[in-house]
């Protein structure tokens, strides 16, 4: 199941554990250490994808569960300013949907990695399957 050699593995695990790593940095570093070369925050593409892999015609968004309304326990509607938050979050969701459609029309493979999938106990599996999805 695990085809990383020991050194790579412990390197990955130490990155995954490091506290102040932003989710998108974690994904970028993992991909880089696996030989992928990418561009960051490409503003010329819909939604400014966090990671763009031109060689694989793939874009990756690393989404916060709250801001992008993930169907998971991390997403909870705020109890105050409900109207404001409702509008804001639903706008984000609509924008995500529109951007995904535009990217797919232009021939890009669109992958979303959710913040909750990068919790330290499951991050290694998430990143491993991400690499497989890119290479498909
Ligand atoms: Zn989530």
Class of secondary structure makeup: alpha+beta
Instruction: Return the CATH class.
Output: Alpha Beta
What summary fits the major beta sheet? 4 strands, mixed
* Radius of gyration, in angstroms, nearest whole number: 16 Å
Oligomer: single chain
Topology:
Elements: H1 6-17, H2 23-33, E1 39-40, E2 51-53, E3 58-63, H3 82-105, E4 109-114, H4 123-135
Parallel strand pairs: 3-4
Antiparallel strand pairs: 1-2, 2-3
Helix pairs in contact: 1-2
Bound molecules: zinc ion (ZN).
Task: Give a quick rundown of the structure.
This protein is α+β, with helices and mostly antiparallel strands and 136 residues long. It has one domain (6-135): Endonuclease, Chain A (3-Layer(aba) Sandwich).
Structure description:
There is one protein chain. The chain is an alpha+beta fold. It has a single domain (6-135), classed as VSR Endonuclease (Endonuclease, Chain A), CATH 3.40.960. Helices cover 44% and strands 12% of the residues. The protein has helices spanning 6-17, 23-33, 82-105, 123-135; strands at residues 39-40, 51-53, 58-63, 109-114. It has a 4-stranded mixed sheet, sandwiched between helices. Strand 3, helix 3 (82-105) and strand 4 (109-114) form a beta-alpha-beta unit. The chain is globular. The relative contact order is 0.17. The mean pLDDT is 89. The structure holds zinc ion. Zinc ion is lined by residues 65, 70, 72, 74, 114, 116.
């Amino acid at each position: 199941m695990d085809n990383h050699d020991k050194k790579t593995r412990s390197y990955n695990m130490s990155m995954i554990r490091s506290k102040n790593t932003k989710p998108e940095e974690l994904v970028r570093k993992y991909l880089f250490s696996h030989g992928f070369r990418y561009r960051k925050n490409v503003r010329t593409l819909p939604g400014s994808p966090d990671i763009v892999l031109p060689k694989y015609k793939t874009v990756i968004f690393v989404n916060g569960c709250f801001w992008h309304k993930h169907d998971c326990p991390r997403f909870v509607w705020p109890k105050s300013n409900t109207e404001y938050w409702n509008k804001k979050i639903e706008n984000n969701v609509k924008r995500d949907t529109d951007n995904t459609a535009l990217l797919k029309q232009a021939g890009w493979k669109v992958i979303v990695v959710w913040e909750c999938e990068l919790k330290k106990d499951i991050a290694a599996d998430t990143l491993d399957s991400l690499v497989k999805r890119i290479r498909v």
